[in-house]
Amino acid sequence: MEPAEIAEKIKEQFPDEFLEVREFRGQAAVTVKKGRLVDICRYLHDEPSLFFDFLVDLCGVDYLGKKENRFVVLYNLYSVRHRHRILVKAEVPEASPSIDTVVPIWAGANWHERECFDLFGITFNGHPDLRRILLPEGWEGHPLRKDYPVKGPGPDQEWKGFTEVLARAQRYKEFEWDE
């Protein structure tokens, strides 16, 4: 099935949730409202003619100052059976950066959602184990946000967590394998 046909099926099934579709190089990106995202994803997974059984990737994007809704969560879906794909985008406002989890549909979303939470601060409602996955638990902020400071509070200072990671790397340097 062609990407435009898949987008049209989503629009027919969820007309009030459908915002737009964009095509680029043979792939369609469908933007939907976040309110019924789980229903849309369940439809894409369960509908026999679509059968999107593989969540290739889930990631966040920060459009600070460029869009009304600052964040977008992207769901890159693929059907192994039908060999077609679609990109589903859900906008998430800065005031309440949260969206429902899709882990009950694709178990592999578990780590993707944790990474998105860790790096962008987007909360996934109903997630079974939403905690940091890449950064230490005590880390302040979300480093992939456009407004995340690159340097520490004073001139020429790195953030405390960063200097701790560098120091630990130096301590463990003796265990590196040299070939």
Describe the overall structure.
There is one protein chain. With 179 residues, the chain is of the alpha/beta class. The protein has a single domain (3-149), classed as 2-Layer Sandwich (Beta Polymerase, domain 2), CATH 3.30.460.80. The protein has 4 helices and 7 strands; from the N terminus they run αββαββββαβα. It has helices at residues 3-13, 37-46, 109-120, 160-171; strands spanning 18-24, 27-32, 54-62, 71-79, 84-92, 98-100, 123-125. A 5-stranded mixed β-sheet has the order 1-2-5-4-3. Strands 6-7 form a two-stranded parallel sheet. Strand 4 and strand 5 (84-92) form a beta hairpin. The longest helix has 12 residues, at 109-120. The model has no long low-confidence stretch (mean pLDDT 91).
What distance separates the N and C termini?
Answer: 50 Å
Query: How many helix segments?
Result: 4
- Uncertain residue segments: none
CA-atom Rg in angstroms: 19 Å
What portion of residues is helical? 25-40%
Question: CATH fold name, please?
Answer: Beta Polymerase, domain 2
In N-to-C order, the SSE pattern is: HEEHEEEEHEH
Task: Please provide the count of β strands.
Answer: 7
* Class per helix and strand makeup: alpha/beta
CATH architecture: 2-Layer Sandwich
- Main-sheet strand order equals 1-2-5-4-3
